Records
---
Amino acid sequence: MKRQDKSSELTPLDIVQQIVSERISQVSGSEAVSLSDISAMVGRISAETIRAPQNLPITDNVAVDGYAIRLSALEANPKEWFPVKATVRAGHPFAGHIAAGEAAAVYTGAVLPEGVDCVFMHEDCLLKDGQVQIQISGRAGLNIRPAGENLRQGEICIADGDIVTPQDIGQLAAAGIAQLKVRSKLKIALLSTGDEVASAFQTAAGNAQILDANGPMLQGLLAADGFEAASAQIIPDNREALSNAFSKALDKADVLITSGGASDGLEDHTQAAMHDNGVESLFWRIAMKPGRPMAVGQKAGKLVICLPGNPVAVYVCYKLLVAGWLKQMLGMPAKPLLRAELPVGFQHKKRADRAEFLRARVETSDNGQAQLQINGRKGAGVISSLQGADGLVEIPIGITEVQVGDRLPFLPFRERGL
Ligand code: AMP
Ligand code: MG
C-alpha cells in the first residue's frame, strides 16, 4: 500500500457525518402500531421504552421430556427407584408437591412442579413398575429454564429510538405487549434534476435523454429502510424552476433529497436553489469518490440533501450517510457503520485527497481465505456494478496505491448479511 499526505479543501466522510449528525433535529409525532399489523411495525422506530411487566418466562419450566426429581435424594442414593407421582404436561400445571424421593414425569414447556430441582431426559432413565431410576449424575437446575431467563421483570423489551426488528417483535409478543408507539413516518420529497433527465414513464424519450434511475432507486432504498417517498419530480437545469421546486418541497416535507446539478458547473443550480430558499449550508463537497459534489443544508430543522447525478454516487451516499441521518431524525442514535478488514485481490491507484468506495464481491482465494474483488466495471454511472455486489470496499484518504493482499475495510450490503 502506498500513502501520501495531502491537504484538501474537501471535507472527509466522518467529519461530514458528524457535522450533519450534530445538527439534526428530531421530528416529533408518533403513532400506535399493533402486533396484528406486522408490516406497519417492522422497520419503524420505537417512540417508547417498554420494560418486561413480569419475569419471562413467568415460572421455572421444563426444557426436555423426562423425569423431575430432587437432586439431594439422588445424591444420597444414586441407585434409588423413585415412584412417579404425577405427569405434568405443557399448559397443565401440577397443583401438588413432589416430595424428596419421588419423581414426576414431565414434558417440554411444562411448569416445573414444586419440590423438584432437576430434570433428566427419559433416555437417561429406566422406568419399571411406575418407578424411575436415573442412569447419570445430575446437578441442580439441569434441563430447567429458570423464570426470567429471557428477560427479568423490569428489563428492557425495546428502547426508545430502537429500529423495530423481527427479534423485537418476538420479544414484545413474548411479553404480551400488543401495541407499540412508533415515530410517525418522515415526509420525504425527491427531485431529479437535469435537462437530459426523462422519466421511464415517458414514451417519447429521445437518444439525448437519460432516463431517471436515481428517483426510483432512491424510492427503493428508502422503502428497504422502512421509509417512503412519492415519485421524484423531474426538474430541468433552470435556477428558477429548481428554486420553486425546493420551495414547494420545503413547505410539505421534512427532508428534500435531490440528485444532479450539485457541482459548480454552469448548469448546476442546487447551490443557488438552497440560497434562494434561505437554506443554511452545512457543508459542500465531500472527500469521497463517488459522491464528491454532495451538499447538505438545513432550514427550520428540515434537511436538504443534494446528491450528485451519477447513480452509483447516489447509492453510495445514501448508504454511507443519508440512511443514518434519516433514522436519526426519527430518534435513532447515530451508530458507526460496520467495517471489517479483508485482504483484497485487486490492484488500484487513486488520488490521496479523497476516500474511494468501490463495489466489491467477497470471493474465496486459492488459500481458502476470503478476498475482496471489484464487482463489475468501474465508473460512477455504472449501475450494473451495484447489482450483485456484496458491499463496498473503502480505500481511505492518504492511500494512493493498493496491491493484492493489502487489507482494507469492507462494508457489507444487507443482501449478503443475515
Ligand atoms: P450531474 O451531477 O448533474 O453533473 O450529473 C452527473 C451525471 O449523472 C450525468 O451524466 C447525468 O446525466 C447523470 N444523471 C443525472 N441525473 C440522473 C438521474 N436522475 N438518473 C440517471 N442519471 C442521472
Ligand atoms: Mg446535470
---
Amino acid sequence: MSPRPLIALHDVSKVYSNGTLALQEMNLTIEQQQFVSIVGSSGCGKSTVLRLIAGLGKPSSGMIELKETQSSSELAFVFQESALMPWANIVENIRLPLKLAGVSQQKSRGLVQEAINLVGLAGFERSYPRELSGGMKMRVSIARALVTQPSILLMDEPFGALDEMTRSKLNSDLLGLWQQQRWTVVFVTHNIYEAVYLSNRVIVMASRPGRVVADIPIEAAYPRTEEFRTSRLCNEYSREISARLQEAVAGFEHHKITKSTDQLLDSAVN
Ligand code: ADP
C-alpha cells in the first residue's frame, strides 16, 4: 500500500496567551503508518505540536489536516506521566476511555483484555498502580491508549522517566506492537538513540520560535534488532541528528548574542 498523508501541518503558528511564540509557520506532513519522532531542546515546541494535532488547543494561524479519521477516538495520547487512577485496579484504569465513551461493560471486557495482553500485563488485571514498577505503569498507560483501537498514537516522552534497561525493553516491545498494529505514531523524545532505533523518520526542531530544521529518514529495515541499536548505521544517524541539534542551539545562541549586541548598540546610540 502506498503511503498517504494522514497528518498535515500547513504554516502552523502558535502564540500562547502570555505572548510566547511557541511555533512559527511550521510545515510537516506525516504519512499513514509512519513512525515519526520529534527531537529538540526543551521548550522548542514539541509538546505543542502534539497537543495541536490532538486538538487540545488551536493554532493561532495556519491549518492542521487530519485525513482518514472519522472521529477523535481514532487518536490516542500517551504522556510522560502514566497518570493512572491510584484507587482503581489495572482493568478499571484501562477501561476508563471506553467508560467515558459510553461503551457497555460487557462490550468493554474483551477490548480491555486484548489491550492487557498486547502490552504483556496478563496476570496483573486486579493489581493496583502502587503495586507496579514504573515500566509496568507505563505499559498500563499504553494499554489505556490502545483500548480505543486508535489509528494515530501521539506519545509525549513516554519513556523519559524510566531507567535505561526498562526503556530499551519498552522500545522494542512498542516496535513489535507497531509492526502488528501499524498505527501512525508521532513520538516526542529527548533521546536521540531512542528516536533512531524506533523511527522511520526523525524531525529535528529548533526553538524560539519552534520550527523544523531537519527531516531525516532512517533507512533501516524493520524489525530492528538489538544489533541495530549498537550498529554503525544507528550511530551515524545519531551523530547526524546530534549535529543538527547542536547547529540549532548554536543558531539560537548566535541570534541571542546578535540581538543583545544590537540592543547594546541601540542603547548606546539612544
Ligand atoms: P517542548 O515540548 O519542546 O519542551 P513546549 O511545546 O512545551 O516545548 O513549549 C514551547 C514553548 O511554549 C515554551 O517556551 C513554553 O514555555 C511555552 N508554553 C508551552 N505551553 C504554554 C502555555 N500553556 N502557556 C504559555 N506558554 C506555554
